Every structure is written in structure tokens, then in C-alpha cells.
């Protein structure tokens, strides 16, 4: 069976690997001119790592992942430690250590494993047609390709998402989450945080955080609540961050000093999409951000895309009635859980970014002297119910 995948991101390439391993003829198209991933890094919790293990990339993930053993929260202004605890319980109940990874490194590993010769770049899809037997894709250069099915992993502004919606359905629109995220990579510096810890400074609804990734680097990010559409000139570099985090703790100032805007600094307004139920139409289905564009507040965006790839692979390995039937079964596996994660992230962002100041103050107070048990429950709760667990759930002691 021939499969066309639109989008060579984390979800598209992982789905491509899964379907190619089943013997299908898979080709991936992407509109990017060259492999330049958006965003500096990803937090891969055990559900995402397990999918990558299943795809045969266990060694690569271990090599690329940072040794994130602990979680630390600090007061943004004073630098006082609010709580400091081990993440070992997450590994114990899930059976897999989490790994933050640089996005470009993981993207390269996935593309290499799929096969660079089967990825066509600089190809922008402009139309989809399904005659009930095959799906034809038209590209901006006028060329076409035809396959037995099409997987749209074409991101938050997905053309495929619009195609699969029922006639007369309300338009699906992205919604602003209320804050801007700045992220990148810096060299590990103990003045910022321990090399083996996820360290987060919090105050005034803002966050400054680092996670360890391979090659002695921290993945950093800053969250700044602000209106959408504010002007930003890349020539300003980290100046908006210095303004937003003026007077913050020495560790935050050390992080700001370590940023090289010319090398690694991204600015991203955070948007999401309210969950919806229709992911398929005939021989066409959506996956990843096209299906469940989410804010990063619970760190499950990439993991959810990887779960899509797992569910799609399992569906095609075990169902043989028809392509349409199999895609509907994939949809049924994923819609409810993926939508729930979007809403969890939205609620989390509302709490942490002072959109309800009393709730945020209460959260800060709950961190003070915490043993981490409640936070661990939240992390594990996001993992529990993943299709990669095959219904077995998580082991508890």
C-alpha cells in the first residue's frame, strides 16, 4: 500500500517509520526548504520515549537525551529554593526514564531512520482529492502524487484538518494562550541550575526554566504573559527578556548572560485549538499538531504526536477491512485522550501564568517545602492512559 505523509516533523516522520516497518511504501512531503526544526528542544516523558523505543530508536534517544534526575522550583526574585525532589518515581511507575532532547537532534535521527531519500522538501500541498479508491495531492508547483491514503501531519495551520471536517462544521480556529515563550540552548552553567535537574524560577506569572540535554547543554525557556501580536525585531535579541526579568535572581541573570541570540533564541506566541472530534475523511487522516495543537504547559505536545504514530501503526498492523475502517479506528483510539491533554495544558497554563492571580499565588505557596508527591502525580497522570501502555496502566508500589 502506498502512503503519502504531509509534514516531516516529529509526528510525520515517526508515523512514516511505523508504516514503513509494516512494509508499506511511504513518502513524506514537507514545504520547508531544509531541515530547520521550530523550537530548541522537547520534553519527552516516558510515553513518548516508549514510542521511540518501539520505533527502534532507543539507543539514539538515550544518547541524545539529557540526564534529568530531579526537579527544582526557585523563587524568581530571591532565588530561594521552594522545593527540590527526585523524578525517580516517574521512572519507577512508568518503566521508562524521561529524556529532554534537542529538537534538531531528534528530528535528524527520525529523518535518518525513515530515509532521507524518501523525504521531499520544498513541496507545499495546495489541494486534496479522494475518489473513494485513491487520494491525490496537488502541490504548489503543479505536480501531483497519488496514494492509497494520506496522513496530514502538516502542523497547527493544517490544510488537511480543514479537508477532513464535515460539511457545515464550524471553522476550527487557533486560540491565543495569553503568553509568549522564548526558548533556545545554552551551555550548562551551575550558576543557573544543577546539570541533572529541571530547574524553574517562578514569580509574577512568569517562568524561567532549564532542562539538561546532551552535549553539556541546557534547553531554556522563558514565559512572558502579554498580548498577542506585539512587534519583535530579531535584532533586539534578548532585550525583551532582560526587561521582563529585570531584578530576578542571579541564576536567571546568568541564564540571560549565557544566551547567544544569533545562535539559539526563538520567540513563539503560544496558541492552541479547542479539541474537536473529526480526524478522518475517507482515505485521509490528521496527526500531531494538525489534530491537537496544544500549549506546552504539561510537556506532552511531542509525546502526543508520538502516541498518534503508535496508534496509527497498531491500527494498520491489526485491522484489514479497509483503509477507511482502519483510519476510523485510529481516530477512535486518539481523539478523547489527545483532546484531554490539550485541555489539561490549557488549565495548567491558566494557573501558572497569573490569569487567575489568586490561583497562581496558591500554586506558588504549594511549592514551598513540597516533597514533590503532588507534582509527580500530575506528571504520571498525564502519562497514564497512553495507548503505548496497551491498557496495562502504570505500576505502583
Automatic annotation (TrEMBL):
Cited InterPro entries: FAD-bd (IPR002938), FAD-dep_Monooxygenase_BioMet (IPR050493), FAD/NAD-bd_sf (IPR036188), HpxO (IPR047712)
Pathway of action: Purine metabolism; urate degradation
Residue ranges of the TM segments: none
Cofactor(s) annotated in UniProt: FAD
EC number: 1.14.13.113
Family: Belongs to the FAD-dependent urate hydroxylase family.
Name of this chain's protein: FAD-dependent urate hydroxylase
Species in which this protein is naturally found: Microbacterium memoriense
Phylogenetic lineage: Bacteria, Bacillati, Actinomycetota, Actinomycetes, Micrococcales
Amino acid at each position: 500500500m502506498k502512503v503519502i505523509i504531509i509534514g516531516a516533523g516529529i509526528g510525520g516522520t515517526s508515523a512514516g517509520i511505523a508504516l514503513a516497518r509494516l512494509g508499506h511504501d511511504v513518502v513524506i512531503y514537507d514545504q520547508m526548504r531544509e531541515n530547520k526544526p521550530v523550537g530548541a528542544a522537547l520534553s519527552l516523558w516516558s510515553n513518548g520515549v516508549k514510542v521511540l523505543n518501539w520505533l527502534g530508536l532507543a539507543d539514539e534517544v538515550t544518547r541524545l537525551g539529557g540526564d534529568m534526575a530531579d526537579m527544582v522550583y526557585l523563587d524568581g526574585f530571591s532565588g530561594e529554593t521552594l522545593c527540590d525532589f527526585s523524578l525517580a518515581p516517574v521512572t519507577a511507575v512508568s518503566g521508562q526514564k524521561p529524556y529532554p532532547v534537542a529538537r534538531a537532534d531528534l528530528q535528524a535521527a527520525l529523518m535518518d531512520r525513515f530515509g532521507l531519500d524518501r523525504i521531499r522538501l520544498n513541496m507545499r500541498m495546495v489541494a486534496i482529492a479522494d475518489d473513494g479508491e485513491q487520494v491525490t495531492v496537488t502541490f504548489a508547483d503543479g505536480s501531483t502524487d497519488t496514494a492509497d491514503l494520506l496522513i496530514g501531519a502538516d502542523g497547527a495551520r493544517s490544510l488537511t484538518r480543514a479537508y477532513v471536517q464535515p460539511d457545515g462544521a464550524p471553522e476550527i480556529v487557533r486560540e491565543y494562550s495569553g503568553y509568549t515563550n522564548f526558548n533556545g540552548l545554552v551551555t550548562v552553567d551551575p550558576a543557573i541550575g544543577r546539570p541533572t535537574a529541571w530547574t524553574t524560577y517562578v514569580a509574577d506569572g512568569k517562568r524561567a526554566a532549564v532542562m539538561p540535554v546532551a552535549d553539556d547543554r541546557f534547553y531554556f525557556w522563558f514565559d512572558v504573559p502579554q498580548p498577542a501580536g506585539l512587534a519583535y525585531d530579531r535584532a533586539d535579541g534578548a532585550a525583551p527578556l532582560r526587561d521582563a526579568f529585570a531584578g530576578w535572581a542571579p541564576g536567571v541573570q546568568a541564564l540571560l548572560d549565557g544566551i547567544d541570540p544569533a545562535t539559539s533564541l526563538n520567540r513563539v506566541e503560544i496558541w492552541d485549538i479547542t479539541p474537536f472530534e473529526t480526524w478522518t475523511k475517507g482515505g485521509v487522516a490528521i496527526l500531531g499538531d494538525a489534530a491537537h495543537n496544544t500549549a506546552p504547559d504539561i510537556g506532552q505536545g511531542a509525546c502526543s504526536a508520538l502516541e498518534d504514530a503508535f496508534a496509527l501503526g497498531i491500527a494498520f498492523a491489526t485491522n484489514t477491512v479497509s483503509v477507511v475502517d482502519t483510519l476510523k479506528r485510529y481516530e477512535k483510539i486518539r481523539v478523547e485522550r489527545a483532546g484531554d491533554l490539550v485541555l489539561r495544558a490549557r488549565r495548567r497554563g491558566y494557573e501558572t501564568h497569573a490569569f487567575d492571580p489568586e490561583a497562581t499565588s496558591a500554586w506558588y505557596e504549594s511549592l514551598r517545602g513540597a516533597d514533590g508527591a503532588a507534582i509527580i502525580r500530575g506528571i504520571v497522570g498525564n502519562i497514564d492512559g497512553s495507548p503505548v501502555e496497551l491498557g496495562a496502566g502504570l505500576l505502583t508500589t
